[in-house]
């Protein structure tokens, strides 16, 4: 699977990232899938497909836009 993306220098709180959008955190690219107030933000590491949960107080990071997944 090949992933290409365009970026823009837009910084927002992580909880403002919409489901289906990607974001960069600690030099890794994640896809946000869902969130809830108990377990935080659910996301997938696009490098290895593993799922992670981040709390809503996570550090503000740039949003990655226009992500295209090419099989």
UniProtKB/TrEMBL annotation:
<protein>
    <submittedName>
        <fullName>Uncharacterized protein</fullName>
    </submittedName>
</protein>
